[in-house]
Design goal:
The complex is a heterodimer of chains A (about 110) and B (about 110). Chain A has about 110 residues and is mainly beta. Chain A contains no helices and 12 strands. The mean pLDDT of chain A is about 90. In chain B, strands 2, 4, 5, 6, 9, 10 and 11 form a 7-stranded mixed β-sheet that branches. A 4-stranded antiparallel β-sheet of chain B has the order 1-3-8-7, with no helix packed on it. The chains are: A mainly beta (about 110), B mainly beta (about 110). At the A-B interface, strand 5, strand 6 and strand 11 of A face strand 5 and strand 10 of B.
């Protein structure tokens, strides 16, 4: 079945540091890939997505590239801010299969210190 | 625009008690979902609905029931609460067929003692 593996947290970085959160997946077919973010006290919200190989999703300074050859969708940001402190979830869905549902990774907690 | 709202935010139950977690969305979404999130684990789908009057089981439905009498509301019922149901519960909704962008509520933290 489908699965998503994320790097274990928590991750603590200083403000303005470079961020990478690793995500790899297992799925047959051609999944769509997502990063969701959960800020403290809030529900998850979509951060970015990519629906085919070599697509790059981007939002709020975050980027992730869909790499089919390495089955990866790593999240990156060049200069993090304190406001980026949150839990980040990688997820996939095989859009070309009817009735499929999102498969989530375990989440990575990110803390940015001033 | 409130989005997806959930009540209560936190609840403590005794073993064997029952309760209903409420979920309401005001975006006129057809699809609604209930997930649970255990510590160190990803979200697991409990039940989902593709429209009023239609519900189906997800990955971990045992011990739960749902109903969908309106487009807006999707309550989750716990019967005979067990310690294994201690978790954070998220309700979500989406518009599209492939459920690509889901909108989540803030969650309900449930403790069963």
């Amino acid at each position: 079945g489908n699965s998503v593996t994320q790097m274990e947290g928590p991750v603590t970085l200083s403000e303005e540091a470079f961020l990478t959160i690793n995500c790899t997946y297992t799925a047959t077919g051609y999944p769509s890939l997502f990063w969701y973010v959960q800020y403290p006290g809030e529900g998850l919200q979509l951060l970015l997505k990519a629906t085919k190989a070599d697509d790059k999703g981007s939002n709020k300074g975050f980027e992730a590239t869909y790499r089919k050859e390495t089955t990866s969708f790593h999240l990156e940001k060049g200069s993090v801010q304190v406001s980026d402190s949150a839990v980040y979830f990688c997820a996939l869905i095989r859009s070309n299969f009817g009735n499929e549902k999102l498969t989530f990774g375990t989440g990575t907690r990110l803390t940015i210190i001033p | 625009n409130a989005g997806v709202t959930q009540t209560p935010k936190f609840r403590i139950l005794k073993i064997g008690q029952s309760m209903t977690l409420q979920c309401t969305q005001d975006m006129n979404h057809n699809y609604m979902y209930w997930y649970r999130q255990d510590p160190g684990m990803g979200l697991k789908l409990i039940y989902y609905s593709v429209g009023a009057g239609i519900t189906d089981k997800g990955e971990v439905p045992n011990g739960y029931n749902v109903s969908r009498s309106t487009t807006e509301d999707f309550p989750l019922r716990l019967e005979l609460a067990a310690p294994s149901q201690t978790s954070v519960y998220f309700c979500a909704s989406s518009y599209g067929e492939y459920q690509e962008t889901q909108y989540f509520g803030p969650g309900t933290r449930l403790l069963v003692l």
